[in-house]
Specification:
mainly alpha; 62% helix
Length: 398
Amino acid sequence: MAKVIFTAWKTKAQLVEVRNEFYPPPSYAGPDLRSHGCAVVEAWKLRGNVPHHVEATALLTDAILHDDAQRNSIFSIRATYSAAFCRFVTGLVDTKIHGVRRTMFQRATDLGLPASFVELRHEATHREPPSLVVLRKAAQRSLEWLWDNFWADICDEPGATPAFAHDDGVSVRAALCDALQPLAGGSAEPVSKKRKYDRAISVAMRLVSICNASGPGIRLLPGVLLEQELLVPAGRTLGDSLNDTLKEWSTVLLKVAESHPSFLRHLTEDMVNDLAFNTKDASTNPHSEALYLWLVHILTSPTWEFHRQSCPHSYVLQACDGSPHHWTTLLAEQVKKQAKKTSALPVARSGAQTRVSKPQTRPQSQGTTTQLSEKLLAHGWGLLEQWDSRPLGVVASN
């Protein structure tokens, strides 16, 4: 009877693709995709069944990428190297296995692992972290050992290429389409909420990695989403609810917007352009209605409140005024109504403070309050009227 093996990757080509990102071929001249490979492995870990060799490669590679003295402290870099190296060695020579109990050195000998790795792991675990020079050399030797004992035995398959060979529009667009594929087609079987969320986070992490590695990626992503009609359910009719789609895709889009704030501006512009210029039977067009619902959700819902600062509200209003039809008129009304609520918020807050607060005992705070920008007041920031100015660590006594 054939043995069934569950893997975190869908096809072997995906594993080869990640291998080529960690160990690029000599002929490869594209961008550095190692961070993308680390993100893919992190997403695979959500599914489970990730081999230790794959996880260790990602951890060691991530430690190397973390090795930047201008951004991180030397102690942080040494700690990251030590943690990645110790996990790599411990996962291979751990004595808590079935069968005869053996020492770590015996296990290392059986696996062909250098004994110096076990000694260095013991030093990093029980004594001071090794020097940075030693850790860098150990990480490089570990990656070489992983290549010789795991990655080199994986044969290439047709189509197993890096995400994109060059930083051009066609290659990046193809990589984005491939990353969005898990969410492109609906599942015939019911899927649990946790599995949906994990799948959305996995897709979002891959999109972020592609955009990090490619300059035009963040600008091309909104166009790919709209061209593939991923944000509008297939077969949707006029009046159908869009709540499930909004909830599922907002998880992905918010994750991308957190890493790339300009993404929301590009997405809003492309959506309003599509809505404004699609004037054919606009009032009865389900696609136009879906775009209207998406724009209202982004521009007015509390979910997007933090990221809405980068939205081009004036451009949305100009596009609606320039191409007036049923949905653009409704959208302009919603945007103006939201703008009135936002502008009225600071007035309401200041009025409430006047009614509730006690008389000011510090005359200088009045002038300071007026210096706060309207944006800070609109987001709930204000001055604490009474505060204790004692230094930290001082206890008042009678």
